[in-house]
Amino acid sequence: MSIQAESSLARRRVQPRGATTKRVNNNWRFYLFALPFTLLWLFPVFGVILTSIRSKEDILYNGYIALPKPITFSSYIEAWVQGNVSVYLLNSFLITIPALFATIFLSSLSAYALARIRFRGSRWILMLYISGMMLPYQIIILPVFQLSVALGIYNTLWAVIFVHTAFQMAFCTFVLRNFMVTLPGEIMEAARMDGCTDFGIYRRIVMPLTLPALAALATLEFTWIFNDFIWSLVLLQDDSLRPVTAGLATLIGQYNTNWSVVVAGSLIASIPTMIVFILLQRYFIQGLTMGSVK
Amino acid sequence: MATTGVQTETPSVPRHKTSAAKRRTKQPFNFTPWLFLAVPLLIYLVWVVEPLFYSFYLSLTDWDGVTNPTFIGLKNYQTLLQDPVLYVSFLNNLKVLSVFLIVPIAGGLGLAVLFNRPSRMINVLKAAIYSPMVLSFIVIGLIWSWFYLPNEGALNTLLRSAGLGFLAQSWLSNAQISIFSVTFAACWRQIGYVMLLYLAGLNTIDASLVEAAKVDGANGWQVFLRIIFPLLAPITTIIVIATIIDSLQFFDLVYIMTKGGPGYASTVLANFMFTEAFTNFRYGYGAAIAVVQFLLSFIFIVFYLTYMLRKGADNL
Q1: Structural domains present in chain A
Q2: What is the value of pTM for the model shown?
Q3: Nearest CA in chain B to A273
Protein backbone atom coordinates (compact mmCIF):
# COMPACT_ATOMS: atom_id res chain seq x y z
CA MET A 1 0.00 0.00 0.00
CA SER A 2 2.53 2.53 1.06
CA ILE A 3 4.61 1.67 -1.93
CA GLN A 4 1.78 2.68 -4.18
CA ALA A 5 0.95 5.63 -2.06
CA GLU A 6 4.55 6.71 -2.09
CA SER A 7 4.90 6.61 -5.82
CA SER A 8 1.61 8.35 -6.38
CA LEU A 9 2.12 11.04 -3.81
CA ALA A 10 4.01 14.05 -4.91
CA ARG A 11 7.33 13.78 -3.16
CA ARG A 12 7.17 17.14 -1.54
CA ARG A 13 8.99 17.63 1.66
CA VAL A 14 8.66 20.11 4.41
CA GLN A 15 11.81 22.08 4.28
CA PRO A 16 13.00 25.52 5.05
CA ARG A 17 12.73 27.71 2.02
CA GLY A 18 14.75 30.86 2.32
CA ALA A 19 17.25 32.72 0.30
CA THR A 20 19.91 30.40 -1.07
CA THR A 21 22.62 31.97 1.04
CA LYS A 22 20.54 31.48 4.13
CA ARG A 23 20.02 27.84 3.34
CA VAL A 24 23.71 27.23 2.76
CA ASN A 25 24.40 28.92 6.03
CA ASN A 26 21.76 26.75 7.71
CA ASN A 27 23.22 23.62 6.21
CA TRP A 28 26.67 24.50 7.41
CA ARG A 29 25.39 24.98 10.94
CA PHE A 30 23.32 21.84 10.64
CA TYR A 31 26.30 19.69 9.74
CA LEU A 32 28.27 21.21 12.57
CA PHE A 33 25.68 19.63 14.85
CA ALA A 34 24.68 16.55 12.84
CA LEU A 35 28.08 15.12 12.09
CA PRO A 36 29.43 15.01 15.66
CA PHE A 37 26.02 13.88 16.85
CA THR A 38 25.98 10.90 14.49
CA LEU A 39 29.52 9.95 15.44
CA LEU A 40 28.63 10.16 19.12
CA TRP A 41 25.50 8.14 18.43
CA LEU A 42 27.59 5.32 17.02
CA PHE A 43 30.23 5.63 19.72
CA PRO A 44 29.37 2.27 21.34
CA VAL A 45 29.79 0.61 17.94
CA PHE A 46 33.17 2.20 17.30
CA GLY A 47 34.23 1.34 20.82
CA VAL A 48 33.22 -2.27 20.34
CA ILE A 49 35.06 -2.48 17.02
CA LEU A 50 38.20 -1.12 18.67
CA THR A 51 37.90 -3.56 21.55
CA SER A 52 37.50 -6.47 19.14
CA ILE A 53 40.90 -5.85 17.54
CA ARG A 54 42.80 -5.51 20.78
CA SER A 55 44.41 -8.18 22.88
CA LYS A 56 43.23 -9.08 26.36
CA GLU A 57 46.49 -7.83 27.86
CA ASP A 58 46.31 -4.55 25.99
CA ILE A 59 42.80 -3.95 27.41
CA LEU A 60 43.94 -4.95 30.87
CA TYR A 61 46.79 -2.42 30.87
CA ASN A 62 45.28 0.43 28.90
CA GLY A 63 41.55 0.24 29.69
CA TYR A 64 38.68 0.04 27.24
CA ILE A 65 39.11 3.45 25.71
CA ALA A 66 42.46 3.28 23.98
CA LEU A 67 43.86 2.64 20.54
CA PRO A 68 44.96 -0.93 19.87
CA LYS A 69 48.62 -1.76 20.18
CA PRO A 70 49.14 -4.04 18.49
CA ILE A 71 46.13 -4.65 16.22
CA THR A 72 45.15 -8.29 16.43
CA PHE A 73 42.34 -10.29 14.86
CA SER A 74 42.81 -13.26 17.14
CA SER A 75 39.53 -12.54 18.94
CA TYR A 76 37.63 -13.00 15.70
CA ILE A 77 39.32 -16.34 15.13
CA GLU A 78 38.69 -17.33 18.73
CA ALA A 79 34.99 -16.43 18.48
CA TRP A 80 34.61 -18.08 15.06
CA VAL A 81 36.38 -21.34 15.90
CA GLN A 82 36.45 -22.04 19.65
CA GLY A 83 33.42 -19.86 20.33
CA ASN A 84 31.40 -21.81 17.73
CA VAL A 85 30.11 -18.66 16.04
CA SER A 86 30.62 -20.36 12.66
CA VAL A 87 28.17 -23.10 13.67
CA TYR A 88 25.70 -20.62 15.20
CA LEU A 89 25.72 -18.47 12.10
CA LEU A 90 25.05 -21.44 9.86
CA ASN A 91 22.12 -22.43 12.09
CA SER A 92 20.72 -18.93 11.84
CA PHE A 93 20.60 -19.27 8.07
CA LEU A 94 19.21 -22.79 8.27
CA ILE A 95 16.33 -21.39 10.32
CA THR A 96 15.83 -18.04 8.64
CA ILE A 97 15.84 -19.02 4.97
CA PRO A 98 13.20 -21.79 5.10
CA ALA A 99 11.02 -19.90 7.57
CA LEU A 100 11.21 -16.77 5.43
CA PHE A 101 10.19 -18.55 2.24
CA ALA A 102 7.50 -20.59 3.95
CA THR A 103 5.88 -17.69 5.73
CA ILE A 104 5.87 -15.42 2.69
CA PHE A 105 4.65 -18.08 0.30
CA LEU A 106 1.88 -19.31 2.59
CA SER A 107 0.87 -15.75 3.48
CA SER A 108 0.63 -14.84 -0.18
CA LEU A 109 -1.82 -17.71 -0.67
CA SER A 110 -4.08 -16.57 2.16
CA ALA A 111 -3.67 -12.97 1.13
CA TYR A 112 -4.82 -13.76 -2.39
CA ALA A 113 -7.92 -15.55 -1.15
CA LEU A 114 -8.74 -12.75 1.27
CA ALA A 115 -8.08 -9.95 -1.17
CA ARG A 116 -9.39 -11.21 -4.48
CA ILE A 117 -12.03 -13.84 -3.80
CA ARG A 118 -15.36 -13.02 -2.22
CA PHE A 119 -16.55 -15.75 0.08
CA ARG A 120 -18.39 -16.34 3.26
CA GLY A 121 -16.20 -16.02 6.35
CA SER A 122 -13.40 -14.10 4.69
CA ARG A 123 -13.87 -11.20 7.07
CA TRP A 124 -13.55 -13.47 10.08
CA ILE A 125 -10.40 -15.08 8.79
CA LEU A 126 -8.90 -11.70 8.11
CA MET A 127 -9.76 -10.67 11.67
CA LEU A 128 -8.11 -13.85 12.94
CA TYR A 129 -4.88 -12.90 11.20
CA ILE A 130 -5.06 -9.26 12.24
CA SER A 131 -5.56 -10.22 15.89
CA GLY A 132 -2.45 -12.38 15.70
CA MET A 133 -0.35 -9.42 14.59
CA MET A 134 -0.22 -7.77 17.96
CA LEU A 135 -0.24 -10.97 19.98
CA PRO A 136 2.46 -10.91 22.67
CA TYR A 137 4.55 -13.98 21.93
CA GLN A 138 4.79 -14.84 25.64
CA ILE A 139 1.23 -16.05 25.71
CA ILE A 140 1.96 -18.90 23.30
CA ILE A 141 5.46 -19.86 24.50
CA LEU A 142 4.47 -22.68 26.85
CA PRO A 143 1.86 -24.36 24.63
CA VAL A 144 4.22 -24.13 21.66
CA PHE A 145 6.94 -25.71 23.75
CA GLN A 146 4.55 -28.50 24.68
CA LEU A 147 3.37 -28.85 21.09
CA SER A 148 6.91 -29.23 19.79
CA VAL A 149 7.55 -31.94 22.39
CA ALA A 150 4.32 -33.71 21.43
CA LEU A 151 5.19 -33.56 17.73
CA GLY A 152 8.68 -34.89 18.47
CA ILE A 153 10.38 -31.87 16.97
CA TYR A 154 11.51 -30.23 20.21
CA ASN A 155 15.22 -29.49 20.04
CA THR A 156 15.28 -29.55 16.24
CA LEU A 157 15.48 -26.63 13.84
CA TRP A 158 12.06 -27.68 12.53
CA ALA A 159 10.34 -26.47 15.67
CA VAL A 160 11.85 -23.01 15.33
CA ILE A 161 11.13 -22.89 11.60
CA PHE A 162 7.50 -23.86 12.17
CA VAL A 163 6.83 -21.34 14.88
CA HIS A 164 8.41 -18.50 12.92
CA THR A 165 6.44 -19.46 9.84
CA ALA A 166 3.19 -19.47 11.76
CA PHE A 167 3.83 -16.47 13.97
CA GLN A 168 4.98 -14.18 11.15
CA MET A 169 2.09 -15.25 8.97
CA ALA A 170 -0.34 -12.87 10.66
CA PHE A 171 1.66 -9.80 9.78
CA CYS A 172 2.66 -10.99 6.30
CA THR A 173 -0.88 -11.96 5.36
CA PHE A 174 -2.19 -8.61 6.51
CA VAL A 175 0.40 -6.61 4.59
CA LEU A 176 0.13 -8.68 1.41
CA ARG A 177 -3.65 -8.67 1.50
CA ASN A 178 -3.72 -4.90 1.82
CA PHE A 179 -1.37 -4.67 -1.12
CA MET A 180 -3.28 -7.12 -3.29
CA VAL A 181 -6.57 -5.31 -2.65
CA THR A 182 -5.13 -2.23 -4.33
CA LEU A 183 -4.22 -4.07 -7.54
CA PRO A 184 -6.46 -3.12 -10.46
CA GLY A 185 -9.17 -5.74 -10.97
CA GLU A 186 -9.55 -5.36 -14.73
CA ILE A 187 -6.60 -7.56 -15.70
CA MET A 188 -7.83 -10.32 -13.45
CA GLU A 189 -11.36 -10.12 -14.80
CA ALA A 190 -10.00 -10.27 -18.31
CA ALA A 191 -7.88 -13.29 -17.46
CA ARG A 192 -10.90 -14.95 -15.90
CA MET A 193 -12.92 -14.33 -19.06
CA ASP A 194 -10.16 -16.05 -20.98
CA GLY A 195 -10.60 -19.08 -18.76
CA CYS A 196 -7.79 -18.52 -16.32
CA THR A 197 -8.32 -20.26 -12.97
CA ASP A 198 -7.82 -18.54 -9.63
CA PHE A 199 -4.52 -20.27 -9.17
CA GLY A 200 -3.46 -19.09 -12.61
CA ILE A 201 -4.41 -15.53 -11.75
CA TYR A 202 -2.51 -15.82 -8.47
CA ARG A 203 0.61 -17.17 -10.15
CA ARG A 204 0.66 -15.23 -13.41
CA ILE A 205 -0.87 -11.90 -12.50
CA VAL A 206 -1.09 -11.18 -8.80
CA MET A 207 2.28 -12.50 -7.67
CA PRO A 208 4.31 -10.63 -10.31
CA LEU A 209 2.45 -7.42 -9.46
CA THR A 210 3.03 -8.00 -5.76
CA LEU A 211 6.80 -8.29 -6.14
CA PRO A 212 7.62 -4.88 -4.65
CA ALA A 213 5.61 -5.68 -1.52
CA LEU A 214 7.16 -9.13 -1.36
CA ALA A 215 10.64 -7.67 -1.56
CA ALA A 216 9.98 -5.18 1.21
CA LEU A 217 8.35 -7.80 3.36
CA ALA A 218 11.11 -10.33 2.80
CA THR A 219 13.80 -7.84 3.76
CA LEU A 220 12.00 -6.99 6.96
CA GLU A 221 11.14 -10.56 7.86
CA PHE A 222 14.70 -11.67 7.23
CA THR A 223 16.01 -9.37 9.92
CA TRP A 224 13.17 -10.22 12.32
CA ILE A 225 13.58 -13.96 12.05
CA PHE A 226 17.35 -13.77 11.97
CA ASN A 227 17.41 -11.60 15.09
CA ASP A 228 14.92 -13.64 17.05
CA PHE A 229 16.15 -14.96 20.36
CA ILE A 230 13.25 -16.26 22.43
CA TRP A 231 12.10 -19.12 20.21
CA SER A 232 15.50 -20.73 19.91
CA LEU A 233 15.94 -20.26 23.64
CA VAL A 234 12.68 -22.06 24.32
CA LEU A 235 12.72 -24.73 21.62
CA LEU A 236 16.38 -25.72 21.32
CA GLN A 237 18.59 -27.40 23.87
CA ASP A 238 21.71 -28.53 22.03
CA ASP A 239 24.43 -25.94 21.71
CA SER A 240 25.17 -27.23 18.21
CA LEU A 241 21.67 -26.21 17.03
CA ARG A 242 21.61 -22.68 18.37
CA PRO A 243 21.31 -19.73 16.02
CA VAL A 244 23.69 -16.87 16.49
CA THR A 245 21.54 -14.88 18.93
CA ALA A 246 21.24 -17.74 21.39
CA GLY A 247 24.84 -18.66 20.61
CA LEU A 248 26.06 -15.25 21.70
CA ALA A 249 24.24 -15.72 24.99
CA THR A 250 26.33 -18.86 25.45
CA LEU A 251 29.47 -17.05 24.37
CA ILE A 252 29.09 -14.38 27.03
CA GLY A 253 28.87 -17.13 29.63
CA GLN A 254 32.08 -18.67 28.37
CA TYR A 255 34.09 -15.52 27.79
CA ASN A 256 32.73 -13.11 30.37
CA THR A 257 36.22 -11.98 31.23
CA ASN A 258 37.39 -11.66 27.65
CA TRP A 259 35.25 -8.95 26.13
CA SER A 260 37.23 -8.70 22.99
CA VAL A 261 36.02 -12.20 21.99
CA VAL A 262 32.41 -11.43 23.00
CA VAL A 263 32.24 -8.27 20.94
CA ALA A 264 34.08 -9.85 18.02
CA GLY A 265 31.39 -12.56 18.02
CA SER A 266 28.66 -9.92 18.19
CA LEU A 267 30.14 -8.07 15.24
CA ILE A 268 30.35 -11.23 13.16
CA ALA A 269 26.77 -12.02 14.11
CA SER A 270 25.60 -8.64 12.82
CA ILE A 271 27.20 -8.90 9.39
CA PRO A 272 24.28 -10.63 7.60
CA THR A 273 21.59 -8.18 8.71
CA MET A 274 23.96 -5.27 8.17
CA ILE A 275 24.57 -6.39 4.58
CA VAL A 276 20.83 -6.71 4.03
CA PHE A 277 20.31 -3.25 5.50
CA ILE A 278 23.02 -1.63 3.40
CA LEU A 279 22.02 -3.30 0.13
CA LEU A 280 18.26 -3.31 0.57
CA GLN A 281 17.77 -0.27 2.77
CA ARG A 282 15.02 1.07 0.55
CA TYR A 283 13.01 -2.12 0.84
CA PHE A 284 13.68 -2.35 4.53
CA ILE A 285 12.28 1.12 5.13
CA GLN A 286 9.34 0.54 2.80
CA GLY A 287 8.56 -2.63 4.70
CA LEU A 288 8.66 -0.84 8.02
CA THR A 289 6.46 2.04 6.99
CA MET A 290 4.16 -0.34 5.15
CA GLY A 291 3.87 -2.52 8.18
CA SER A 292 4.90 0.06 10.73
CA VAL A 293 5.14 -0.76 14.33
CA LYS A 294 7.40 -3.57 15.31
CA MET B 1 2.03 -2.99 11.97
CA ALA B 2 -0.59 -2.14 9.49
CA THR B 3 -1.43 0.82 7.50
CA THR B 4 0.22 3.30 9.86
CA GLY B 5 -1.21 6.48 8.58
CA VAL B 6 2.18 7.02 7.09
CA GLN B 7 0.40 6.98 3.85
CA THR B 8 -2.70 9.07 3.88
CA GLU B 9 -4.18 8.10 0.56
CA THR B 10 -5.43 4.63 -0.05
CA PRO B 11 -6.62 3.81 -3.49
CA SER B 12 -9.97 2.25 -2.84
CA VAL B 13 -11.17 -0.38 -5.20
CA PRO B 14 -14.85 -0.82 -5.95
CA ARG B 15 -15.24 -4.49 -5.25
CA HIS B 16 -18.75 -4.78 -4.04
CA LYS B 17 -20.67 -4.20 -7.21
CA THR B 18 -23.40 -6.60 -6.29
CA SER B 19 -24.29 -7.05 -2.68
CA ALA B 20 -22.59 -9.99 -1.03
CA ALA B 21 -25.89 -11.41 0.15
CA LYS B 22 -27.31 -11.54 -3.34
CA ARG B 23 -24.33 -13.39 -4.65
CA ARG B 24 -24.36 -15.87 -1.85
CA THR B 25 -27.81 -17.09 -2.67
CA LYS B 26 -26.95 -17.43 -6.33
CA GLN B 27 -23.67 -19.23 -6.03
CA PRO B 28 -22.97 -22.74 -4.76
CA PHE B 29 -20.33 -23.17 -2.07
CA ASN B 30 -17.06 -21.90 -3.39
CA PHE B 31 -14.16 -24.21 -2.64
CA THR B 32 -11.46 -22.12 -4.29
CA PRO B 33 -10.64 -19.75 -1.40
CA TRP B 34 -10.43 -22.69 0.98
CA LEU B 35 -7.90 -24.40 -1.26
CA PHE B 36 -5.74 -21.31 -0.96
CA LEU B 37 -6.31 -21.03 2.76
CA ALA B 38 -6.08 -24.67 3.83
CA VAL B 39 -2.37 -25.05 4.52
CA PRO B 40 -1.54 -21.57 5.87
CA LEU B 41 -4.65 -21.45 8.01
CA LEU B 42 -4.02 -24.91 9.42
CA ILE B 43 -0.44 -24.02 10.42
CA TYR B 44 -1.62 -20.74 11.88
CA LEU B 45 -4.40 -22.37 13.87
CA VAL B 46 -2.17 -25.11 15.23
CA TRP B 47 0.86 -22.96 16.11
CA VAL B 48 -0.72 -19.65 17.09
CA VAL B 49 -4.47 -19.72 17.73
CA GLU B 50 -4.78 -22.97 19.62
CA PRO B 51 -1.71 -22.23 21.83
CA LEU B 52 -3.27 -18.89 22.76
CA PHE B 53 -6.32 -20.61 24.24
CA TYR B 54 -4.36 -23.51 25.64
CA SER B 55 -2.29 -21.06 27.69
CA PHE B 56 -5.40 -20.16 29.64
CA TYR B 57 -5.97 -23.81 30.45
CA LEU B 58 -2.31 -24.37 31.38
CA SER B 59 -2.50 -21.48 33.82
CA LEU B 60 -5.09 -23.47 35.74
CA THR B 61 -2.83 -26.49 36.10
CA ASP B 62 0.15 -27.73 37.98
CA TRP B 63 2.64 -28.85 35.36
CA ASP B 64 6.31 -29.75 35.60
CA GLY B 65 6.81 -29.95 31.85
CA VAL B 66 7.22 -33.73 31.84
CA THR B 67 4.16 -35.40 33.32
CA ASN B 68 0.61 -34.45 32.34
CA PRO B 69 -0.70 -31.13 33.66
CA THR B 70 -3.08 -31.56 36.61
CA PHE B 71 -5.99 -29.17 36.98
CA ILE B 72 -5.75 -27.07 40.15
CA GLY B 73 -8.23 -24.26 39.46
CA LEU B 74 -7.22 -20.73 40.30
CA LYS B 75 -4.45 -21.70 42.70
CA ASN B 76 -1.66 -20.38 40.48
CA TYR B 77 -3.34 -16.99 40.41
CA GLN B 78 -3.75 -16.97 44.19
CA THR B 79 -0.05 -17.69 44.62
CA LEU B 80 0.84 -15.18 41.95
CA LEU B 81 -1.07 -12.34 43.55
CA GLN B 82 0.87 -12.90 46.75
CA ASP B 83 4.21 -13.16 44.98
CA PRO B 84 6.23 -9.97 45.53
CA VAL B 85 8.20 -10.64 42.35
CA LEU B 86 5.03 -10.04 40.34
CA TYR B 87 4.81 -6.49 41.65
CA VAL B 88 8.53 -5.85 41.24
CA SER B 89 8.34 -7.08 37.65
CA PHE B 90 5.25 -5.09 36.84
CA LEU B 91 6.77 -1.96 38.32
CA ASN B 92 9.85 -2.52 36.17
CA ASN B 93 7.64 -2.87 33.10
CA LEU B 94 6.09 0.45 34.03
CA LYS B 95 9.55 2.01 34.41
CA VAL B 96 10.50 0.71 30.97
CA LEU B 97 7.24 2.06 29.61
CA SER B 98 7.61 5.53 31.10
CA VAL B 99 11.11 5.94 29.68
CA PHE B 100 9.96 4.44 26.40
CA LEU B 101 7.07 6.84 26.08
CA ILE B 102 9.27 9.88 26.52
CA VAL B 103 12.81 9.36 25.25
CA PRO B 104 12.30 7.63 21.88
CA ILE B 105 9.24 9.67 20.92
CA ALA B 106 10.74 13.04 21.82
CA GLY B 107 14.17 12.07 20.48
CA GLY B 108 12.83 10.40 17.37
CA LEU B 109 10.51 13.26 16.51
CA GLY B 110 13.21 15.85 17.15
CA LEU B 111 15.72 14.03 14.99
CA ALA B 112 13.15 13.48 12.25
CA VAL B 113 12.35 17.18 12.05
CA LEU B 114 16.05 18.11 12.12
CA PHE B 115 17.11 15.53 9.56
CA ASN B 116 14.20 16.07 7.19
CA ARG B 117 16.31 17.65 4.45
CA PRO B 118 16.87 16.14 1.04
CA SER B 119 20.56 15.49 0.63
CA ARG B 120 22.71 12.49 -0.04
CA MET B 121 24.97 13.29 2.88
CA ILE B 122 22.04 13.54 5.27
CA ASN B 123 20.69 10.23 4.03
CA VAL B 124 23.94 8.62 5.10
CA LEU B 125 23.69 10.21 8.54
CA LYS B 126 20.05 9.15 8.87
CA ALA B 127 20.91 5.59 7.92
CA ALA B 128 23.68 5.61 10.50
CA ILE B 129 21.23 6.71 13.18
CA TYR B 130 18.67 4.04 12.49
CA SER B 131 21.14 1.30 11.65
CA PRO B 132 20.96 -0.15 15.22
CA MET B 133 17.46 -1.24 14.22
CA VAL B 134 18.82 -4.15 12.22
CA LEU B 135 20.95 -5.41 15.10
CA SER B 136 19.44 -8.10 17.29
CA PHE B 137 18.60 -7.19 20.86
CA ILE B 138 21.26 -9.67 21.89
CA VAL B 139 23.96 -7.80 19.98
CA ILE B 140 22.66 -4.46 21.26
CA GLY B 141 22.66 -5.89 24.76
CA LEU B 142 26.26 -7.04 24.44
CA ILE B 143 27.43 -3.76 22.93
CA TRP B 144 25.85 -1.84 25.77
CA SER B 145 27.03 -4.31 28.40
CA TRP B 146 30.51 -3.55 27.10
CA PHE B 147 29.78 0.16 27.31
CA TYR B 148 28.46 -0.17 30.87
CA LEU B 149 31.29 -2.39 32.17
CA PRO B 150 32.01 -1.51 35.80
CA ASN B 151 35.22 0.09 37.11
CA GLU B 152 37.29 0.97 34.05
CA GLY B 153 34.49 0.39 31.55
CA ALA B 154 33.99 2.70 28.58
CA LEU B 155 31.21 4.85 30.01
CA ASN B 156 32.95 5.22 33.37
CA THR B 157 36.21 6.14 31.65
CA LEU B 158 34.42 8.74 29.54
CA LEU B 159 32.70 10.21 32.57
CA ARG B 160 35.98 10.45 34.46
CA SER B 161 37.76 12.13 31.61
CA ALA B 162 34.88 14.61 31.39
CA GLY B 163 35.34 15.41 35.08
CA LEU B 164 32.14 13.59 35.99
CA GLY B 165 33.91 10.75 37.78
CA PHE B 166 31.43 10.92 40.66
CA LEU B 167 28.79 9.50 38.31
CA ALA B 168 30.88 6.45 37.45
CA GLN B 169 29.42 3.25 38.83
CA SER B 170 28.34 -0.31 38.15
CA TRP B 171 25.57 0.50 35.74
CA LEU B 172 24.13 -2.97 35.52
CA SER B 173 24.64 -4.23 39.07
CA ASN B 174 23.32 -1.21 40.91
CA ALA B 175 19.81 -2.27 41.89
CA GLN B 176 18.52 1.30 41.75
CA ILE B 177 19.39 1.92 38.13
CA SER B 178 19.99 -1.39 36.37
CA ILE B 179 16.54 -1.43 34.72
CA PHE B 180 17.09 2.10 33.44
CA SER B 181 20.52 1.22 32.08
CA VAL B 182 18.91 -1.64 30.16
CA THR B 183 16.06 0.56 28.94
CA PHE B 184 18.46 3.15 27.70
CA ALA B 185 20.15 0.55 25.49
CA ALA B 186 16.69 -0.20 24.08
CA CYS B 187 16.10 3.51 23.47
CA TRP B 188 19.22 3.62 21.34
CA ARG B 189 17.48 1.28 18.92
CA GLN B 190 13.98 2.68 19.36
CA ILE B 191 14.88 6.32 18.68
CA GLY B 192 16.06 5.45 15.19
CA TYR B 193 12.90 3.49 14.54
CA VAL B 194 10.59 6.25 15.73
CA MET B 195 12.60 8.74 13.72
CA LEU B 196 12.09 6.63 10.63
CA LEU B 197 8.33 6.52 11.09
CA TYR B 198 8.13 10.25 11.66
CA LEU B 199 10.31 10.90 8.62
CA ALA B 200 7.90 8.87 6.53
CA GLY B 201 5.06 10.90 8.02
CA LEU B 202 6.76 14.22 7.36
CA ASN B 203 7.15 13.09 3.80
CA THR B 204 3.39 13.00 3.34
CA ILE B 205 2.78 16.49 4.72
CA ASP B 206 1.92 18.89 1.98
CA ALA B 207 4.65 21.50 1.86
CA SER B 208 2.17 24.17 0.74
CA LEU B 209 0.49 24.01 4.17
CA VAL B 210 3.76 24.89 5.84
CA GLU B 211 4.47 27.59 3.31
CA ALA B 212 1.03 29.10 3.76
CA ALA B 213 1.58 29.26 7.51
CA LYS B 214 4.95 30.91 6.97
CA VAL B 215 3.43 33.46 4.65
CA ASP B 216 0.95 34.21 7.39
CA GLY B 217 3.89 34.95 9.65
CA ALA B 218 4.22 31.79 11.73
CA ASN B 219 7.70 31.07 13.02
CA GLY B 220 9.37 27.66 12.87
CA TRP B 221 8.28 26.63 16.33
CA GLN B 222 4.67 27.63 15.67
CA VAL B 223 4.66 25.75 12.39
CA PHE B 224 5.89 22.66 14.18
CA LEU B 225 3.45 22.95 17.07
CA ARG B 226 0.35 24.00 15.14
CA ILE B 227 0.76 22.22 11.83
CA ILE B 228 3.38 19.51 11.70
CA PHE B 229 2.75 17.88 15.08
CA PRO B 230 -1.06 17.70 14.68
CA LEU B 231 -0.65 16.23 11.20
CA LEU B 232 1.64 13.58 12.65
CA ALA B 233 -0.94 12.64 15.30
CA PRO B 234 -1.97 9.33 13.67
CA ILE B 235 1.64 8.16 13.67
CA THR B 236 2.10 9.30 17.24
CA THR B 237 -0.98 7.34 18.28
CA ILE B 238 0.32 4.18 16.67
CA ILE B 239 3.77 4.63 18.17
CA VAL B 240 2.33 5.18 21.64
CA ILE B 241 0.10 2.10 21.55
CA ALA B 242 2.83 -0.07 20.07
CA THR B 243 5.26 1.24 22.67
CA ILE B 244 2.91 0.17 25.45
CA ILE B 245 2.50 -3.30 23.99
CA ASP B 246 6.25 -3.61 23.33
CA SER B 247 7.11 -2.51 26.85
CA LEU B 248 5.03 -5.34 28.24
CA GLN B 249 6.98 -7.78 26.06
CA PHE B 250 10.41 -6.50 27.04
CA PHE B 251 12.65 -9.55 27.44
CA ASP B 252 15.81 -10.06 25.37
CA LEU B 253 17.80 -7.11 26.69
CA VAL B 254 17.10 -7.89 30.32
CA TYR B 255 17.97 -11.53 29.72
CA ILE B 256 21.32 -10.78 28.12
CA MET B 257 22.36 -7.72 30.17
CA THR B 258 21.32 -8.40 33.76
CA LYS B 259 19.45 -11.72 33.85
CA GLY B 260 16.89 -9.72 35.81
CA GLY B 261 19.38 -8.87 38.53
CA PRO B 262 20.81 -7.91 40.83
CA GLY B 263 18.33 -10.08 42.69
CA TYR B 264 15.03 -9.26 41.02
CA ALA B 265 15.89 -5.57 40.61
CA SER B 266 15.57 -5.51 36.84
CA THR B 267 13.19 -8.43 36.31
CA VAL B 268 10.28 -7.71 33.99
CA LEU B 269 7.17 -9.86 33.57
CA ALA B 270 8.51 -11.79 30.59
CA ASN B 271 11.71 -12.71 32.42
CA PHE B 272 9.74 -13.63 35.53
CA MET B 273 7.61 -15.95 33.46
CA PHE B 274 10.59 -17.47 31.67
CA THR B 275 12.45 -18.12 34.91
CA GLU B 276 9.47 -19.72 36.63
CA ALA B 277 8.75 -21.98 33.67
CA PHE B 278 12.11 -22.95 32.29
CA THR B 279 14.39 -22.60 35.31
CA ASN B 280 12.07 -23.58 38.16
CA PHE B 281 9.97 -25.94 36.01
CA ARG B 282 6.72 -24.40 37.24
CA TYR B 283 5.05 -24.29 33.86
CA GLY B 284 1.50 -23.82 35.13
CA TYR B 285 2.65 -20.90 37.21
CA GLY B 286 4.55 -19.50 34.23
CA ALA B 287 1.40 -19.76 32.14
CA ALA B 288 -0.49 -17.78 34.78
CA ILE B 289 2.14 -15.02 34.53
CA ALA B 290 1.82 -15.09 30.74
CA VAL B 291 -1.94 -14.75 31.00
CA VAL B 292 -1.64 -11.77 33.36
CA GLN B 293 0.81 -10.20 30.94
CA PHE B 294 -1.53 -10.89 28.05
CA LEU B 295 -4.54 -9.39 29.83
CA LEU B 296 -2.53 -6.28 30.67
CA SER B 297 -1.74 -5.72 27.02
CA PHE B 298 -5.10 -6.97 25.77
CA ILE B 299 -6.91 -3.69 26.22
CA PHE B 300 -4.23 -1.90 24.21
CA ILE B 301 -4.24 -4.59 21.55
CA VAL B 302 -7.99 -4.15 21.14
CA PHE B 303 -7.56 -0.41 21.05
CA TYR B 304 -4.85 -0.72 18.44
CA LEU B 305 -6.84 -3.10 16.27
CA THR B 306 -10.00 -1.01 16.32
CA TYR B 307 -7.92 2.05 15.52
CA MET B 308 -6.28 0.28 12.60
CA LEU B 309 -9.57 -1.10 11.35
CA ARG B 310 -11.32 2.24 11.57
CA LYS B 311 -8.51 3.89 9.69
CA GLY B 312 -8.45 1.23 7.03
CA ALA B 313 -12.21 0.75 6.93
CA ASP B 314 -12.61 1.71 3.31
CA ASN B 315 -10.00 -0.85 2.54
CA LEU B 316 -11.53 -3.81 4.29
Answers
A1: 34-72 (no CATH), 85-291 (1.10.3720.10)
A2: 0.86
A3: B134
